[in-house]
Design a protein that fits this description.
By secondary structure, this protein is α+β, with helices and mostly antiparallel strands. About 40% of the residues lie in helices and about 20% in strands.
Length: about 350
């Protein structure tokens, strides 16, 4: 009987080895371990033996069964390993290929304008100043000759912060970058030539206004600075910024508390799609004597000019954008126009 069991185990080992796929292996298993398998038949035959023979023969049959089950497990594992190796060979990654890099971002069009403005003014000797976006009432309004009843201080125009300065006055999100005129002038001696680009905040939102927007403030203070200097500097800036001499500039009388006299600066292209249209581009004027005094300087000795331009306005004119809100909607289809790699 034991020789028959050894032959049965060898037969199972051969059939398991010859099985080409999992289905064939399961069929081979059934021939030995199934309900009608060879080992099952031997176990049923134990019923005709005596108790002692049944015990001895049953142990030998169970031993053979364990051997066949181990052979079956080994073959199943071998098949699984073969399938894994085949899959790995099919899905091999060539590590010598260059990696797939993540997308590269680009510079926002308004920041492009910011950088361009800084480059132009640095080239003619202007410094670049930066300061806090949360300002004191004095720097944002009083030092710039804005009286307490000025409408710019209204809650409808201004974002106030729920804190107070050292004098108990409210803090505010700066409504312009003009406070940097005062901050810079109080720590520098004339001649003072500086621009202050940065973010500003007002309660305003439509196609040409945003609650947060960018502005560049310019200031030149010395003993003999006139409107002629202002016109020369700003006209040169516009021609450099738009890369064309085909434009004219005019100064239109206006009012600003921090300049006297004051003027709006308009420009007109003499060629291209916007030719013949006057476009408001900046506010400007001769710095008010009160503001010069707040700089800590003698207004009888020092004089100068200031201007303030919206960076979004310059960007819209340079790139032909007709709605400021597009700059901040995060639409990649729009932004990709300014960055080929975005």
């Amino acid at each position: 009987m034991s020789s028959n069991l050894e032959a049965l185990v060898q037969d199972a080992a051969q059939q398991f080895a010859e099985a080409a796929d999992p289905a064939s292996l399961e069929n081979a298993k059934a021939r030995f371990l199934g309900k009608s398998g060879a080992l099952t038949a031997l176990l049923k035959g134990l019923a005709s033996l005596s108790a002692d023979d049944k015990r001895a023969e049953g142990a030998r049959i169970n031993q053979a069964k364990v051997q066949i089950e181990n052979l079956l497990t080994e073959r199943r594992q071998a098949m699984a390993d073969e399938r894994l190796q085949a899959r790995l060979a099919q899905e091999t990654i060539d590590v010598t290929l260059p990696g797939r890099g993540r997308g590269v971002g680009g510079v926002h069009p308004v920041i492009r304008t910011w950088q361009r403005v800084e480059e132009i003014f640095r080239s003619i000797g202007f410094d670049v100043a930066d300061g806090p976006e949360i300002e004191t009432d004095w720097f944002n309004f009083s030092a710039l000759n804005n009286p307490e009843n000025h409408p710019a201080r209204s809650m409808q125009d201004t974002f106030y912060v729920d804190m107070k300065d050292s004098g108990g006055l409210p803090l505010v999100l700066r409504t312009h970058t003009s406070p940097m005129q005062v901050r810079h002038a109080r720590t520098h001696q004339p001649p003072i030539k500086v621009i202050a680009p940065g973010r500003t905040y007002r309660v305003d939102s439509d196609a040409t206004h945003s609650p947060m927007f960018h502005q560049v403030e310019g200031l030149w203070i010395d003993e003999h600075i006139s409107f002629a200097h202002l016109k020369g500097v700003y006209t040169n800036f516009l021609r450099c910024f738009f890369e064309t001499d085909d434009l004219v500039v005019r100064f239109r009388p206006s009012f600003f508390p921090f300049t006297e006299p004051s003027a709006e600066i308009d420009m007109m292209f003499t060629s291209g799609p916007n030719r013949g249209r006057w476009l408001e581009i900046s506010g400007s004027g001769q710095v008010h004597p009160t503001v010069v005094a707040n700089f800590g300087l003698d207004p009888e000795r020092y004089i100068g000019f200031a201007f303030g331009s919206g960076l979004e306005r310059l960007t819209m004119l340079r790139y032909g954008v007709d709605d400021l809100r597009q700059f901040y909607e995060g639409d990649l289809r729009f932004l990709r126009q300014f960055n080929q790699r975005l």
